[in-house]
Amino acid sequence: MINVSSKSDTLRYARAEGFLYARPETIRMVAENRVPKGDVAATVRAAGILAAKHTSDWIVFCHPIPLDWIELQVEALEDRLKITAEVESVWKTGVEMEAITAVSAGLLNAYDMLKPHDKEMRMGEIKLAKKKGGKSQYREEFDRPLKAAVLVISDSTFAGKRKDNSGRVIREMLQNFPVEVAVYEILPDDAEKIRARVSELVQNEKCDLVITTGGTGFGPRDTTPEAVRPLLEKSAPGIGEKMRDFGSRHTPYAMLSREIAGTIGNSLVLTLPGSSKGARESMQALFPGVLHIFPMLWGGGHGKK
Predict the structure, then answer these.
(1) Residue 139: its pLDDT value, please?
(2) 205: domain range?
(3) Is the residue at 271 inside a domain?
(4) Do 164 and 75 share a structural domain?
(5) Is residue 252 part of a domain?
(6) Sheet holding 209-213: strands in order across?
(7) Residues 162 and 117 in one domain
(8) What is the predicted pLDDT for the residue at 135?
(9) Cα–chain-centroid distance for residue 3?
(10) Which of 53, 95, 110, 230 has its C-alpha lying 20 to 30 A from 157's C-alpha?
């Protein structure tokens, strides 16, 4: 199976459809509810719902997914039955296979109920008709790449005693988004130097995005939040909450991190943990959704720039 532990829960939706081709008189039996074995539409609905909930039992690489909604519709056309399934879930991976499985089960049950009356039936054209959800739905596009700065805050790294890992992780992950890292620097755990450099990056170097990593814990020299907070014009508490919530699903120590975020003018400042694992999880939690702040900052509301 694919490891999805690094993904965030999002609303997932899928619609699938398929057809059972039969003689017109067979279709009329279904429409008029004259099939001896019972109500075909009701059976198809029940079978499809049950099958969708058990998709992972027989599709080898499917994850067991907590489904929030399943619905099937049966439409009697002239020479075919059209079966449509819709599935919704708030989870880490999509529900395409659940929708396709529901349609397949519905078709098989309809075939079984009608086979004594029609030897020429055939099933086909089972397909995914629509899907929504996942991080790809929340990707932003801009006229130009965002100019970003990554600041590694660490006394030991600044002194050359420790190799930077978290800053490297952040830079690598930003390559997947419309962001260009123009500045990458290492600073000591000095609140005045941190504050001065962040201010300069925003005011003079016109960085759209400033990401710091390190100095967010409770160590004697951890002062990044205190350095950055006075600069923020608008605080974004939900960003810090998201990082801690996501991190707490992997380790209880995430609750001890003091990340903050906010805006200075049209620039966004994020303070991330100093460990490479914490930085990676924070980036996974925030991107690409956090980039939606820029159309809002630029006056576009929730539309895209």
Answers:
(1) 77
(2) 139-297
(3) yes
(4) no
(5) yes
(6) 179-187, 146-153, 209-213, 267-272, 261-264, 234-235
(7) no
(8) 65
(9) 14
(10) 230
What's the CATH number where 55 sits?
3.30.70.640
Count of domains for the chain: 2
What the block records as the tokens of 23 is: 């003689």
Extract the tokens encoding 11: 């609303």
Maximum Cα interatomic distance, the chain, rounded to a whole number of Å: 84
Residues marked active site are found at 112
Nearest CA among 191, 186, 185 for reference residue 162:
186
Q: Which pLDDT does position 303 carry in this prediction?
A: 54
Residue ranges of the chain with per-residue pLDDT less than 50: 304-305
| pLDDT at residue 10 in the model | 85
Per-residue confidence (pLDDT) for residue 8, from 0 to 100: 77
